[in-house]
Design goal:
By secondary structure, the protein is an alpha+beta fold. The chain is about 20% helix and about 50% strand.
């Protein structure tokens, strides 16, 4: 009985030790430039009437066209050689006849995780998925792409390499 009462305290103590180590690692890594936040941005797009996306305009709901896309982009680098770039986006529809706003129909994630082999050569894992919110995609739950990517950068200046999406 006493052991059962002490178990949460023991777990809390382990968690505190782990958090101290993580904090120390982050403190040390910041002094050796181990983590670089290259870019964080939020974008809002409004689509022209007549835009087509099967997840939004061909989902069985009548009188719909593309609406807006809201996106968050976060690009990071670790130890100058490893990168992890994320692009999270959501897409809305709009009523075709009145132009009034609809609702979010899909959300998605584009992610790249990899290594800078040289200044102009990267290899990594790439993922893109788009999840439907209130309809079922005809061939499964959602479109999903996973791949290994070998990228040759032909021309770059340091300011334009901030974003991969």
């Amino acid at each position: 009985m006493v052991v059962a009462c002490l178990q949460p305290l023991y777990l809390l103590k382990l968690l505190m030790k782990w958090l101290n180590k993580v904090f120390l690692l982050l403190l040390l890594s910041s002094s050796v430039n181990a983590f670089e936040l290259r870019q964080v941005d939020i974008s809002l797009e409004r689509f022209f009437s007549g835009g087509v996306d099967p997840l939004v305009t061909q989902n069985g709901l009548p009188n719909r066209t593309m609406g807006e896309r809201l996106a968050l982009n976060v690009n990071t680098t670790f130890f100058k050689y490893f990168y992890w770039d994320n692009y999270v986006h959501g897409t809305t529809d709009r009523y075709l006849d009145s132009g009034s706003a609809g609702q979010f129909r899909s959300v998605g994630l584009q992610m790249r995780l990899g290594i800078n082999l040289f200044d102009n050569v990267q290899i990594g894992y790439k993922h893109h998925s788009q999840h439907t919110l209130d309809t079922t995609y005809i061939n499964g739950p959602w479109p999903r792409e996973d791949s290994i990517e070998l990228k040759f950068i032909l021309l770059s200046n340091k300011t334009s390499r901030a974003s991969f999406f």
